[in-house]
């Protein structure tokens, strides 16, 4: 072979060797690959166990077929003044039922959470306090579902009670409430606290109107009503009444879509 051919072969060999060296830098040794894989596995974050939302303490066992039970209910909140009411109820060991307006619940989630964790019952009162009895099916579903979602997101609890704003009902509302698993709760004692903002008047009307099995309607958006609550509780308790949530009052036997005003069968007026 002539001189130029040898030169070309030598240059090719040098080039091939250089190429092999370069490729070796791109592919790390097998041991190195395994080490990197192990390190990556160790560094990968482990999935955290899903935390259950806090739950309220269990409700006391009360037999409203034997006890003089009354359910205090509060509509239209929560509002900042609801915190004072919760302090009053906590100080007296009373559980109540709150029918929440969805947009206010979204605005004050800390109060919704506090109500739930204190053992009070939470119910649906529509998202904007619209007249659901006169609303279309689409409006009814929007009002109810949005409120359910807000309360569930804040507490992990899904309401089973509905209080139609203004007590306004319809076949459409009843049908959709049944589909959503909501029982419709009205009231048997109404002190008209939304009209007459007088603490003494609210107190007298509630105490005089209450009988065993009663569902009392009040509004925690009115300071005059909140101020009446301590005396209402003390006077009814002195008369032998036991304070329960709506579901406790009816023994947990409320059917979706059905209407409830008060517990019809109660104990004698005095304790046995």
From TrEMBL:
The lineage of its organism: Bacteria, Bacillati, Actinomycetota, Actinomycetes, Streptosporangiales. The keyword Membrane does not apply. This is Polysaccharide deacetylase family protein. It comes from Actinomadura sediminis. Residues 68-244 form the NodB homology domain. Pfam families: Polysacc_deac_1. One of its GO terms (molecular function) is hydrolase activity. It is an enzyme of class 3 (hydrolase). Residues 41-54 have a biased composition (Basic and acidic residues). Residues 41-62 are annotated as: Disordered. Its EC number is 3.-.-.-. InterPro entries: Glyco_hydro/deAcase_b/a-brl, NODB_dom, Polysacc_deacetylase_ArnD. Keywords: Hydrolase, Metal-binding.
């Amino acid at each position: 072979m002539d001189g130029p051919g040898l030169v070309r072969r030598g240059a090719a060999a040098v080039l091939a060797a250089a190429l092999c060296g370069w490729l070796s830098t791109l592919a790390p040794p097998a041991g190195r690959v395994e080490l990197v894989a192990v390190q990556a596995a160790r560094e990968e974050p482990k999935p955290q166990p899903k935390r259950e939302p806090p739950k309220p303490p269990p409700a006391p066992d009360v037999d409203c077929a034997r006890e003089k039970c009354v359910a205090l209910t509060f509509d239209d909140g929560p509002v900042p003044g609801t915190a004072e009411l919760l302090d009053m109820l906590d100080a007296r060991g009373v559980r109540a039922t709150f029918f929440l307006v969805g947009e206010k619940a979204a605005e004050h989630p800390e109060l919704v959470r506090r109500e739930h964790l204190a053992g009070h019952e939470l119910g649906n009162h529509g998202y904007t306090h619209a007249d659901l009895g006169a609303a279309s099916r689409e409006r009814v579903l929007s009002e109810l579902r949005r409120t359910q979602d807000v309360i569930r997101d804040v507490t992990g609890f899904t309401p089973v009670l509905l209080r139609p704003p203004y007590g306004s009902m319809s076949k459409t509302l009843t049908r959709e409430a049944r589909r959503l698993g909501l029982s419709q709760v009205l009231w048997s004692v109404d002190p008209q606290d939304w009209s007459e903002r007088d603490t003494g008047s609210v107190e007298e009307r509630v105490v005089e109107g209450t009988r065993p099995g009663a569902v009392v309607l009040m509004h925690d958006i009115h300071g005059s009503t909140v101020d009446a609550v301590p005396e209402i509780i003390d006077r009814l308790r002195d008369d032998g009444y036991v304070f329960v949530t709506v579901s406790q009052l009816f023994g947990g036997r409320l059917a979706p879509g059905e209407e409830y005003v008060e517990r019809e069968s109660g104990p004698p007026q005095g304790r046995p």
